Amino acid sequence: MTQLEMARKGNISPQMESVASAEGLDPEIIRQRVAAGTVVLPANVRHHGIVPCGIGQGLSTKVNANIGTSSDFGNIDTELEKLRVAINAGADTVMDLSTGGDIPSVRRAILAASNRPIGTVPIYQAGIGAIEKHGAIVKMSVNDVFQGVEDNARDGVDFITVHCGVSMAAIDRLKKQGRVTDIVSRGGAFTVGWMLHNDHENPLYEYFDRLLDIALEYDVTLSLGDGMRPGSLADATDRTQVQELITLGELAQRAQDAGVQVMVEGPGHIPLDQIETNVRLQKALCKGAPFYVLGPLVTDIAAGYDHITGAIGGAIAAMHGADFLCYVTPSEHLAIPDVDDVREGVIASRIAAHAADIVKGIRGAGDRDRQMALARKRLDWEEQASVALDPEKFRRVHGQRASTGSACSMCGQYCAMDLVGKYLGVKAVRC
């Protein structure tokens, strides 16, 4: 049975127990929310040894890191190193978005090395396989599409992005809309190109029940992808995006009715004042299904700093109810990320997630902040390092530019807390 089916039968699985322990909640609460479809636990029955991860209502905001090869760069070794860095930086899940080299081999290596849930986009394998066999993505068959899904599921992938909402109706809406950036989703572009060339409905939409059968067999969580997401602020919250979201809400309900775990992906480029509206719209149309957002990016002109742009949007989205943040790296829009980009992206999104969790009242979220404040008051640098989101960077920067006194070198002997502490009888902890 899937986690959803077990929960509806009143059974608490080991994964539910583990998530409850990590979140500081009663296992029965997790079971109820999984049964209601407002929490998912991506855990393919063939992926052993993973740390269970709960995503959704009332749980801490989770962070995903994307890795994977491209047609220009990357191999198994580079991606395994990115995986290691992402996990060490605190990513809750990792997605393999490989589009270059031996895609199945890269995926299997990542799955074997990961104790975190792994996600993929199976249409990449199907589309690139069609290029290799037939010279064009549009030559892939319906069976190729579903074979790609089944290959990923059989290998142990825990959640898959599937662009089921890219329908003929959505394409018609796109044509009428007149967007600035049209389609920026790679999976969405693969799907739309195939549909227009073959004058045929999206197989993942038309044969959705076939997709559900595969997901049921392996307990793969469906992440309903936003192939029509806005790629610029000018296209945010337009009719094309909303048309697709309405369809995703309907498909999410069908998946849950069938016993399949499902979450819904959200928009990319959104102005600050539209983020809350987007979250509330998704939650209403998808009946509380977990919301997975890319960023969102709140400006189009921060190339090289889009991890910051995404963290700003992610904090606001999570504050208003988004459950799962897909990180954005500094190299977004510029190049495939390297290991340093991966680390920076994960940390930036973790900051956003934590900031939102404090506001959402997530159990224990504010405790570390109070611990940090007290350690700063005492000038206890080792305690500060242990509480920091990135202890490695904390120790490196503080050590490189350390002060001769108890304070940091920013203020030196004129540190406000050190000076006032002496008058109040607070003793600094000398390093």
Give a quick rundown of the structure.
With 431 residues, the protein is an alpha/beta fold. The protein has helices at 3-8, 14-23, 27-36, 76-89, 103-113, 122-134, 142-155, 168-177, 186-198, 203-206, 208-218, 239-258, 275-285, 306-319, 339-360, 367-377, 381-387, 391-400, 416-424, and strands at residues 39-40, 55-56, 62-67, 93-96, 118-120, 159-162, 221-224, 262-266, 291-294, 324-326. It folds into 2 domains: 3-360, Radical SAM ThiC family, central domain (TIM Barrel); 367-424, no CATH class.
Question: Would you mind describing this structure in some detail?
Answer:
The protein has 431 residues and is of the alpha/beta class. The chain has 2 domains: 3-360, TIM Barrel, CATH 3.20.20.540; 367-424, no CATH class. 51% of the residues lie in helices and 9% in strands. It is built from 19 helices and 10 strands. It has helices at residues 3-8, 14-23, 27-36, 76-89, 103-113, 122-134, 142-155, 168-177, 186-198, 203-206, 208-218, 239-258, 275-285, 306-319, 339-360, 367-377, 381-387, 391-400, 416-424; strands at 39-40, 55-56, 62-67, 93-96, 118-120, 159-162, 221-224, 262-266, 291-294, 324-326. It has an 8-stranded parallel β-barrel with strand order 3-4-5-6-7-8-9-10, surrounded by 7 helices. The protein has a two-stranded antiparallel ribbon with strand order 1-2. Strand 4 (93-96), helix 5 (103-113) and strand 5 form a beta-alpha-beta unit. Helix 8 packs antiparallel against helix 12. The longest helix has 22 residues, at 339-360.
